[in-house]
Design brief:
Helix content: under 10%
Structural class: mainly beta
Number of helices: 3
Strand content: over 45%
Largest sheet: 9 strands, mixed
């Protein structure tokens, strides 16, 4: 630390000799720009920047040896036309006891983006948070870069602190669903599909009273967009078991949905798990062998034949595919596919008579009239996603309860037999979580896929670093130059991808900022590695 006279003015500029750039590997994996000489740390919170919401994106820490007056902070911006405003809060306390005291605000378009503060700071450590709000009309394709370019501590003498180039650009996002919307406690388990008319259909759990899994008062909700995700219609409920068998709503929950578009008939299918009775118990543990709703979880199916506007009543297909010895059987959440020969495929999972879970396939060869199930691809795997490879084989990408990385298997006979894929347990790291896998083009019927796209929390010790990855060799390798980070901070971590059009991917995921977060990413940006 320099003496008091050297601490009177501080400035963030272009001198690198006293900078330390740290890419943290902590659960929050934030970008830190540390000025060792003057006790200043600038920490970027790399998150999806929600439109119309104040987003905390940059934290500034100061360590002063004497009392100083903080007069001004200059914020450097790129993409400021998309911004509505900027706020500075002082952070008091630690952990859950932290207080955020507003001390300054400004319009994002003010000249030079100088935020006047005029606050006396005693000697010691001080923390400030900068938040930004994108305009409601901002495009989801825009990016915003926010950095601190000057700090004025009350002296004309200024000193360089850091370079704006060290701060990463952040993507805009839509808060599609979040705590409190429509009086709902939590929204979980995203599914996302593009219909043959180009409509986006997002499905998810509507967990009305608490965030935990079945059993509970849970329905399947849907949001619909006809303009590529720019705007969304109000939420509608498409699966609700209501009061059944003399049991109330909270004992007839239905959730963990998956969605499938049949590109031949244009029918849209949604599949989900219904739990009956057993209040206060987790269905994963309480479901038993048998076939009736009182004994075991039930697999339910609905369909839409008008582009997702209206939906049929739920149909129970449990008796068609469940082995009575199994403790539980249902779909893998997310989405299903239509094969080139027209077969409808959902990923599936079951717990056998020994409580061992297995991933598998659920399929229909007659356009949804009847359904069948494959064998287990691998023990101790659960939530999976499926794609059809160019050679006609089906690839099942599985959540592996051992942790560390995804398991991958392929089949040529609709899951009757399986072969481990060369990428299994090595190519795609995971913290034990659901993930998404799609082809590009998607649900292509007879067209080969030039790319596979995958999304999950790319970490092994927690659900953070939500990342999209691309493979040009049918999932054998996933090179780092084709990785795009969306959110470095912790969330519930489930995600679902869709191809919006030939140029854009859409992703619906459980982010650090909102329960259901929607973003659009240019496909060329992923595959070009830029």
């Amino acid at each position: 630390m320099k003496n008091d006279s050297d601490m009177r003015g501080l400035w963030i500029g272009l001198v690198f000799s006293s900078l330390l750039l740290i890419q943290c590997k902590s659960p929050l994996n934030m970008l830190q720009i540390v000025h060792q000489k003057y006790g200043i740390t600038q920490t970027q919170h790399f998150v999806p920047v929600l439109i119309g919401v104040n987003n905390e994106v940059l934290e500034l820490s100061l360590e002063l040896s004497t009392e100083q007056e903080l007069k001004e902070i200059r914020v450097s911006l790129k993409g400021e036309e998309a911004l509505e405003g900027i706020q500075v809060h002082q952070l008091i306390g630690e952990g859950e006891e932290i207080q955020k005291i507003p001390i300054a605000a400004m319009s994002a378009v003010e000249t030079m983006n100088n935020i006047e503060i005029h606050k006396t700071l005693p000697a010691g450590k001080h923390r400030f948070m900068i938040s930004i709000m994108p305009k409601e009309e901002a495009s989801l394709l825009e990016k915003i870069t926010v950095g601190i370019s000057k700090i004025d501590l009350g002296n004309k003498h200024i000193r360089p602190i850091s370079a704006q180039g060290s701060v990463l650009p952040m993507r805009l996002a839509t808060k599609l669903r979040h705590h409190g919307d429509d009086g709902v406690h939590s929204f979980r388990i995203p599914g996302l599909a593009t219909t043959t008319k180009g409509t986006l259909l997002a499905i998810y759990d509507v967990r009305r009273e608490k965030s935990s899994d079945l059993q509970g008062d849970i329905d399947v909700g849907l949001s619909r967009s006809t303009d590529g995700g720019k705007t969304w219609e109000p939420m509608k409920i498409i699966m609700d078991m209501e009061e059944w068998g003399d049991k109330p709503h909270e004992e007839n929950g239905i959730g963990d949905p998956a969605i499938l578009v049949d590109h031949e008939t244009h029918t849209i299918w949604a599949m989900a798990l219904w739990a009956h009775g057993k209040p206060g118990e987790m269905l994963w543990n309480s479901s038993e062998a048998g076939m009736t709703p009182a004994e075991t979880g039930q697999l339910m199916l609905v369909k839409s034949e008008d582009d997702g506007i209206s939906w049929s009543k739920p149909v129970n297909i449990t008796s068609q595919i469940k082995d009575p010895k199994w403790k539980l059987m249902f779909n893998g959440p997310g989405k299903g596919i239509t094969m080139g020969d027209g077969t409808l495929i959902f990923a599936g999972q079951f717990k056998d008579e020994n409580d061992m879970p297995h991933s598998t396939l659920i399929y229909s060869k007659d356009k949804g009239d009847t359904w069948s199930i494959g064998t287990g691809a691998k023990p101790n795997t659960t939530e999976a996603q499926v794609v059809e490879l160019n050679d006609g084989r089906l690839m099942l990408n599985m959540r592996d309860n051992r942790g560390g990385s995804r398991s991958v298997a392929v089949t040529s006979d609709l899951g009757q037999t399986w072969t481990e894929h060369s990428s299994s347990r090595s190519a795609l790291i995971e913290p034990v979580c659901m993930a998404s896998l799609i082809t590009y083009p998607e649900n292509r019927v007879k067209e080969d896929a030039s790319w596979l796209f995958f999304s999950n929390p790319a970490a092994t010790d927690g659900r953070y670093n939500m990342t999209i990855k691309a493979s040009a060799d049918q999932g054998v390798s996933w090179p780092s130059e084709h990785h795009v980070l969306l959110d470095s901070e912790k969330g519930w971590g489930y995600s679902c991808l869709t191809v919006i059009d030939k140029d854009h991917l859409g992703i619906l995921y459980e982010s650090s900022q909102a329960h259901m977060t929607f973003q659009v990413i240019k496909i060329d940006e992923i595959i070009s590695g830029s």
